[in-house]
Amino acid sequence: MKVLAFSDLHRAAPAARKLVEMSREADLVIAAGDFTNHQIDLEGALALLDGIAAPLVMVPGNNESEADLRALAPKDAVVLHGQAAEVARLRLFGLGYAVPVTPFTDWSCDLSEEAASEMLSGCGDVDILISHSPPKGVVDVTSKGVSLGSTAVLEAIMRAMPPLVVCGHIHDCWGQSASVGDSRVVNLGPQGTWFDIAPKG
Predict the structure, then answer these.
(1) Per-residue pLDDT at 53 exceeds 90
(2) Whether this model's pTM surpasses 0.90
C-alpha cells in the first residue's frame, strides 16, 4: 500500500497544492493535524485540500478542535481521536491534540498525559499509529533543545509496537525519524512523506 502522510499544513497553500497532486498516486492519505492556525477559518484551511484523490484519515492538531474537524472534514474522510479504524485494508489508531498541555491556553487544543493515556488504551494491534504529538524523547526536540513529546504516546508505542508511528507538532523535527523498539517513528511536516506498508492481515 502506498501511503502519503503529512502534518502541520498551517494553511500553506503551495504545500497543499503539492499534496493534492501527490495524492493521485496514493492508496491512503494520512493527515496528522494542524490544518489551520489558532482555530481560525478551519473551513478555508481544509478547502486547500479539495481534490485529495485517495481515502483520507485525519486527526485534529492543537490548532483545531475535534468537533470542528468532524463537522468540516471532507465527506468521506475518517477523523480519529482516541479511536481505531480500518481504511484501505490498514488498521489505524489516531490521537490528536497536543500532549502534554501547552502554554497556549487561549487557543490550543490540549490533553493531559493522563487523558491521553486513557484515550490510547484502545490502541492495540495496528499497522499505523497516528499521533499529532510525538513520543517523549523521540523526534520531539525544539531548536532550544527542549523535549516536548508525550510520555503517554511513548508508553502506547512500547505496549502496542505498531510498525509505523507518524506524528508532527514539533516543527524543528520535521522530516526526522527514529525507532522505539520495532516501531519506526516519523515526524512528518507538510511536505508529504511516502510509506510502502503491507497490511499485517
Answers:
(1) no
(2) yes
